[in-house]
Amino acid sequence: MKRLIAGWTKSENPQPSFWRYQMNKKLADLFKSKVLANSAWLIVLQVFNTIVPLLTLPYITRVLGTSNYGVFSLALNWVTYFQVIVEYGFGFTGARKVSVHGDDGLQELYSRIITARILLLCGTFFAMNILSVALHASSAQYVSMNILFLIILGVAFQLTWLFQGKQDMKLIAIINAVSRLFSVLMVFALVHSENHLYLYCICYAITFLLSAALGILLARKKYGLKVRLCKIADAISEIKDGWYLFISQAMSKIFSGIGTTVLGAVATPSIVGIYSAIYKIPYIMVLFFSPISQALYPHISVCFSKSFESGRKTVTTAAKLVIPAFALAGLAIILLRDHLILIAFGKNYLEYSAIIIPLVLWMLFSVINNFIGIQFLVASGNQKLYSRAFTIGSLITVGMNILLGGVLGIYGVSFAAPIGEMSLTILLYFSVKKAKHGGN
């Protein structure tokens, strides 16, 4: 703001009322756009994706026990790595193309992304089974991973990227909410003992299959889009186009999942289960931020397409509103951590409540990094800079988790998370400075 004021001539002599008018006008323009409506529907979607499943978490952590919940968490952790391969950054590249180009070539883009995801789906299925054998996974973990692979099948055909790019999230939010609610009801109706581990995996995965099927039907009815396979060469071209965002998303998944992976190698299933459960509390805040990020991204991409300065101002205005709110929420979580853990998971998890402090710091840095990385660098077309920073940051995170996790166990991986995110913040800061000067 000081730099802007300094750029004015003395004769213009701006008054405070003028600045208030300008700020109010910007906020009014933002609220008149589809951003607010889409944010609301994405929040509804995220509530059903996070809060509704949490209704089952206190039940499941007690019914399955820390050991079986640890088996489930470790299996889900590995499946999530393969999930990000199938998603392949299309959530951002696809949404950006739809928001910028509209209906021009929409059917072709639709076919290219679906075909590309099917190719990736086949590759990840074979890779997962080979890796399970190579790592000598227990029979329970192996079966759980193959059941949970249904999640990836659903992800391959999910169309959130399409509706996000169209800034039309109402119906897809309702579809996902219904699917998630159905899954939750199945858990309470069918899962009643430690022997129901595999049944719980089925109930967990069915949400993704149901929402994908309903989303395809909605896209056909509303936009006339049909599921058609394109040429393999065209699908590979789409994969190449999303390479840099895929790398950053893959690194992001390493950021969030490496702690569980390391604990799976150095600790008991019970410790894995305790860490995975407590980790979900700050992770829920990250998931709540996700709809805000998804709603802002198409709008900010359009602003950057008009001018770099327009995009920069929009990112700055949004960050000043969002980041303080999440900082206050994080502080509340730290102060109330014992009560939250006791109510959510039971007294068996209370011994390690202190790990929530570094995990909250991880959450806050994650929100900051989204504004610097996704909303600024990616939306402005600087995917390469973002990918490079994310790759280096992820390598630091992996190294810190292996080092601290091997020495300090559950406490080590908990402190490695914010250290990794803080290093990424520094890297992204210098990437932004480079982008402002036209760097690649």
Biggest beta sheet attributes:
none
Give the SSE string. HHHHHHHHHHHHHHHHHHH
Strands, count: 0
Overall pLDDT confidence: 82
Q: Give the CA-based shape.
A: globular
Explain what this protein looks like in three dimensions.
- Helix 3 (34-54) runs parallel beside helix 10 (170-190).
- The protein is mainly α and 440 residues long.
- The protein has two domains: 36-241, no CATH class; 243-440, no CATH class.
- It has helices at 2-6, 16-32, 34-54, 57-87, 90-101, 106-134, 139-148, 150-156, 160-165, 170-190, 197-223, 232-241, 243-266, 269-306, 308-335, 337-345, 356-378, 383-408, 410-436.
- The protein is built from 19 helices and no strands.
